[in-house]
Amino acid sequence: MKREEALAIVRKQLKEQRYIHTLGVMETAVELAALYGADVQQAELAAIFHDYAKFRSKEEMKHIIIEQQMPQDLLMYSPELWHAPVGAYLVQTEVGIQDEHILNAIRYHTSGRPNMTLLEKIVYIADYIEPNRSFPGVDDVRALAREHIDRALLRALQNTIRFLMGKNEPIYPDTFHTYNDIAKKLKGVGNS
Asked: Which CATH number belongs to the domain containing residue 101 in this structure?
């Protein structure tokens, strides 16, 4: 699928600000893919479609999670997490993208998962650091992303966990598992 076609499809699903965010994620993912030797077209498509389900109703997303037998524990955590796995399902069924690498990058862009692929890391980080984002710690992760993708991912996870803890919000277990996985892998590389 060509970029223009993908953007036209996704634009119908998103509000203007979220579409602008998506363009930033796409550009960032393409840069990171080129930097780290990942498939640029896969990164581009995954980034374009990463928020495909963002504005679906909670009821629709909940129904899909149950009907498609996605991890049911998702329903015990913030609905902000739901659009990622639901989006992967809808991109497959509505748009027709069958590439599991692209679908997994969409599926795990909010929670992460242990043993993330390079493409999954790129989309996760691109979503976190795209140029329209402005919050404490984002510039640090942007700098790390150009040097070492795993260190950037670890810092993004640390920031996210701290942020959620500061709001007394529950944290989805896969986010902790992702943090632990990356921290263990980096332990021999040096401190992040």
From this structure: 1.10.3210.10
Is the residue at 38 inside a domain?
yes
Chain-centroid distance, C-alpha 105: 6
Using N-to-C axis directions, what is the helix angle for 118-129 and 149-166, rounded to 10°? 50
- pLDDT per position as a tens digit, 63-106: 999 999 999 999 999 999 999 999 999 999 999 999 999 999 99
Q: Whole-angstrom Cα distance, residue 31 to residue 45?
A: 13
16 lies in some domain: yes
Residue 141 lies in a domain: yes
Residue 110: phi, psi to the nearest 5?
Answer: -100, -40
Tokens of 113: 């998962």
Which phi and psi angles does 111 have, rounded to 5°?
-100, -25
Look at the chain and report how many structural domains it folds into.
1
Q: Residue 85 in contact with residue 65, Cβ under 8 Å?
A: yes
pTM above threshold 0.85:
yes
**Alpha helix ranges (H) inside 50-148:** 58-67, 83-90, 100-107, 118-129, 138-145
Residue 129 burial (10 A CB sphere; 0-12, 13-18, 19+): buried
